[in-house]
Every structure is written in C-alpha cells, then in structure tokens.
Structure to design on (294 residues):
C-alpha cells in the first residue's frame, strides 16, 4: 500500500497547489528537486555510464518531455479546473492505453477478454468525463481539466511503451536520472515563459514545502517504492498493486480536500478498474502456467 499512497499524493498536491504555485513551475521544481535528492546515490553510476548520453539523447529528450512535461505539468494545469478525484480516476486508464498502443505499434495480440476490458475502461473514463450525463458527450461540454488529464494519461501510456521498447545502455536508476535531467531542461524555458507571462512563483515556507513534498514523495519516493515492489513481486504483480492508486486518491481527496465522490465516480471507477483487471488478466495455458490475456 505504500507505493500507491506515494503516487496518489501527487494528485492531491496538484489540486491543493492549484491556486498557490504555477503549474509548469511546480513540475520543474518537482523534478529539479528529485534530481538533487537522487544525485548523491546515483551520480557515480550515472557518470560511469555517461557515454550512453551521446547515443541516447534523442530518446532521453522525448522521455523527459513526456514523463516530466506532459505527465507532470499537464496534471498540474488540469488541476485548476478539475478535481483530485477525477485526476486519479482518469489517470487510471493508462494501463489500458498501454495495452492498446502495444497492439497498434508492436503487434501485441489483444484477446477477446482483454478487448472487453479495454471497452469497459474506456466506458468508465467517458462516464467520469460526462459526469454521468450522456448528453455531455454529444454536446462536447467537458471540463477543461478533464481533457488535460486525458492528455496526461495518454502521455504516460506513450512514455511507458517507449521506455519498454527503446534500447538503452543505462542501468535503471541512472537512466531515470538522465530522463529527469532531460525533463528539467525541457521544462526550464516554459517555466521562464510562465514567469515572464505574469505567473511568478511566490516563495514562502508553504510553497517551498510543497516543492519539497512533490520532489520527495511522488517523485523519488514513489519511484523507489515501485522499483522495490517490482524487485520483490515482479512487474506483473507490481502493476496490479499500482491499480490501487486511483482508489487511494479518491479516499484521500475525500478525507483531506472534502471532495465527496458522486455516483458517476463510483460507476466510472468500477468500469475502469474492472476493465484494467480484464485487460491484464492471466489465463492458464495448457500446462497450467499463467499467460497474459492480450
């Protein structure tokens, strides 16, 4: 439960800081802080593998733009007009998007049960976006923040697919460090533009505290916890555990931000989580071993 809790704190931080810290600046300082926290432990290994930078810098820039820009800043931008509950539930569709992209671009077969799961998860996202009113789908009256979150979830899916399939000479943590560095470099000019455009950071103990929190908890802490879970349980079970993120996020938003879930949140969550479970379900093969239903 620790890993999902650490990830879910980012959704609450996004909403809690929506009127306090400019969104791009929050993303920039989150990953700059993560770099500084990681540096003492990772820098020696990163420096030994620095030759990989020359070969992989185009990939790293793409990863930085997606993982730290789209999946970072877009979440904080969306939080200005949508709820922490919606952020978590819409983001929970990412595993299904990953499955679809793997099928489209890498030929991964999707079985009938997995296809049903994709359809259910998509229906769940639409339920949340439409706030339970089908007419909203036809009138295209979505809340802007929800659409930012759809873009962020799509960015995470693309990031995950590319991260898995692009070759690398880096070890896991040095590669993550390099991606963070690329993300900070990409976010820097947008942060400056945001500042010059009339949205400067007002530095107080409160804003500094939020910066440290998002760098340490959903930044370094969440990724370290996920790596530990993968090492102990394997990537398959780790993925299933992380499906708890949106549910924990909804509970935290209710308890800490007073966002009481509406009926369409329950309905959408049920569809999304059922869809994810079906899309990633393992079926026994002829020898009794588990095989992915995809």
């Amino acid at each position: 439960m620790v890993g999902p809790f650490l990830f879910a704190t980012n959704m609450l931080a996004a909403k809690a800081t929506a009127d306090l810290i400019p969104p791009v600046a929050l993303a920039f300082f989150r990953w700059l802080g993560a770099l500084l926290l990681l540096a003492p432990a990772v820098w020696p290994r990163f420096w030994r593998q620095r030759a990989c930078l020359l070969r992989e810098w185009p990939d790293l820039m793409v990863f930085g733009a997606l993982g730290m820009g789209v999946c970072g800043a877009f979440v904080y931008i969306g939080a200005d007009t949508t709820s922490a509950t919606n952020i978590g539930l819409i983001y929970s569709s990412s595993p299904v998007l990953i499955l679809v992209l793997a099928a489209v671009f890498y030929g991964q077969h999707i079985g009938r049960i997995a296809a049903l799961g994709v359809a259910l998860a998509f229906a769940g996202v639409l339920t949340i976006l439409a706030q339970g009113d089908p007419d909203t789908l036809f009138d295209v009256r979505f809340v802007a923040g929800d659409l930012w979150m759809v873009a962020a979830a799509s960015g995470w899916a693309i990031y995950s697919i590319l991260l898995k399939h692009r070759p690398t000479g880096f070890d896991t943590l040095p590669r993550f460090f390099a991606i963070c560095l690329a993300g900070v470099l990409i976010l820097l000019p947008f942060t400056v533009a945001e500042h010059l455009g009339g949205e400067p950071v007002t530095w107080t103990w409160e804003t500094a505290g939020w910066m440290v929190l998002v760098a340490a908890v959903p930044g370094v802490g969440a990724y370290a916890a996920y790596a530990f879970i993968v090492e102990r349980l394997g990537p398959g079970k780790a993925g299933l555990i992380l499906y708890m993120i949106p549910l924990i996020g909804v509970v935290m938003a209710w308890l800490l931000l007073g966002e009481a879930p509406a009926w369409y949140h329950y309905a959408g969550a049920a569809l999304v989580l059922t869809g994810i479970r079906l899309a990633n379900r393992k079926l026994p093969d002829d020898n009794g071993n588990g095989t992915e239903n995809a």
In short: Residues 35 and 181 are 7 Å apart (CA to CA). The first strand starts at residue 282 and ends at 284. The longest helix spans residues 205-233.
